[in-house]
Amino acid sequence: MHVARLSLTDFRNYASAELELEPGATVIVGRNGQGKTNLVEAIGYLATLGSHRVSGDQALIRAGADAAIIRALLASGGREVLLELQLNRKGANRAQVNRGAAKPRDLPRYAHTVLFAPEDLAIVRGEPSVRRRMLDGLLVQRAPRLAGVMADYDRVLKQRNSLLKSARARGLATAQLTTLDIWDERLVELGAELIDRRAELVRELRAPLADAYRAIVDADHRPELEPVLSIDGADPDDEGEVAGTAGSGDAASSDAPTAERFAAALAALRRRELERGITLAGPHRDDVRLLLNDLPAKGYASHGESWSFALALRLASAELLRRDSSTGDPVLVLDDVFAELDRLRRERLAEAVGGYEQVLITAAVLEDVPAPLAERVVHIAGGRIVDGPADATGPADDHAGRMPSEASGV
């Protein structure tokens, strides 16, 4: 699969823009702050329904606009599909597939991307939420219906937390505890599926992760992934909590089905949850431990090893999507990555991604990109696609690449 055309209206700093693309590698060059990352961010959003830079949609809508529109024409095996997404400041987002109404969560069925970015270092060195977001983004691309499961889980979690806070404030009313039991059942049902799907994904990532790491480093540092589950007593999101206490006494065995262990953990934790007013077990508090040479990468890995681990995880993700997808390779996006790497890692990464159908690269300095990937170059300045290198730093030009008749909505 490749992106044949990308069109933006009021997205980030683009009033309007249209970019024609081809298979193979394309480098998008521009000084920092000009909008090159915004282009690839839009492509990534269609595949994951999220940004790699911000957690909400509001920052994606250009200042003064009520909505942003992303259009992408995807080509695969002689077939084309047009995806359109409107991000609204107020109300629900809207989507279309080939001009027919669709739900936003349908879009990842068609758009598959893997994005490498400087922020990826946080996968190794950052908080558990970063690693959860990485796994969930890949899960949604492989099984788009899980976007709905995740949304439902988040909704139930908010309702349960609200009830816990209310019970804490008013005392332990019997009616509130009975209602809590009802929410527990739904939380367990949805959460157990997410826990199991993440665990399955971790298992599938292990082999391609080892291969990718070896390709980047040319050494075997035994990269490994291990799930860290709150339903089994761990609490990665709270360093003040003591791991192993969640299920003390009545917790189900780790060999028991996930739903049974989850329910047992909630029962064992109820007193502490009522005291704190939050849900202390579930996929929203899980982590995955990254190991190199049997040691935690977070805290032990060098800067170069951490970068190599993060890159290898993205390459392993791309390999899974390539293996499973009926539409061919995912689009690989390398956002300002080469500037972070030494020469050897640049060359090895370029070799590792060279066989994919389409690779989109952003760079502030063209010379940072290995020559085999720099045959096609697009220049960006001030929210505009320009003909050549420019030093412009001004605001987006409303006449740059405007698509007449398409600026009014999806």
CATH fold name of the largest domain, please?
A: Glutathione S-transferase Yfyf (Class Pi), Chain A, domain 2
Q: Order of strands across the widest beta sheet?
A: 2-1-4-5-6-7
CATH class value of the largest domain:
Mainly Alpha
The overall average pLDDT, rounded, is 87
Radius of gyration: 23 Å
Q: What's the structural domain tally? A: 2
Largest sheet: 6 strands, antiparallel
Per DSSP, what share of the residues sits in E-state strands of 2 or more residues? Answer: 15-25%
What is the H/E order? EEEHEEEEEHHHHEHEEHHEHEEE
Query: For the record, what is the CATH homologous superfamily label of the largest domain?
Result: RecF/RecN/SMC, N-terminal domain
Structural class of the helices, strands and pairings?
Answer: alpha/beta
Q: For the terminal residues, how far apart are their CA atoms?
A: 23 Å
Q: What's the total number of strands?
A: 15
CATH architecture of the largest domain: Up-down Bundle
Number of helices: 9
